[in-house]
């Protein structure tokens, strides 16, 4: 069964901000954060919406220096 935003009970911006705040605070203390299935689904829907709205390629003027370390285990 395909769940639509309406059938999941769409989160308003304030509710979504509250879920993100709980996750950030829990992550700082290394604590688990309890989320309902509906909260997790809505986070996924909103994350997908944001990611799809962003370009997957960026134009960067040359020259470009890439620094970092890659480790394969």
UniProtKB/TrEMBL annotation:
UniProt enzyme class: hydrolase
Protein name, entry field: protein-serine/threonine phosphatase
Signal peptide: none
Pfam families listed in its UniProt record: STPPase_N (PF16891)
InterPro entries named among the record's database cross-references: Metallo-depent_PP-like, STPPase_N
EC number: 3.1.3.16
Stretches assigned to the Serine-threonine protein phosphatase N-terminal domain: 16-60
Molecular function as annotated in GO: metal ion binding; protein serine/threonine phosphatase activity
Keywords: Hydrolase, Manganese, Metal-binding
Keyword Secreted (UniProt): no
SUPFAM superfamilies, alphabetized: Metallo-dependent phosphatases
Keyword Signal: no
């Amino acid at each position: 069964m395909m769940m639509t935003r309406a059938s999941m009970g769409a989160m308003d911006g304030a509710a979504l901000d509250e879920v993100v705040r709980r996750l950030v605070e829990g992550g700082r203390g290394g604590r688990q954060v309890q989320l309902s299935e509906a909260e997790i689904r809505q986070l996924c829907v909103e994350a997908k919406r944001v990611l799809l709205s962003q370009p997957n390629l960026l134009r960067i003027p040359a020259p470009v220096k890439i620094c970092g370390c890659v480790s394969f285990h």
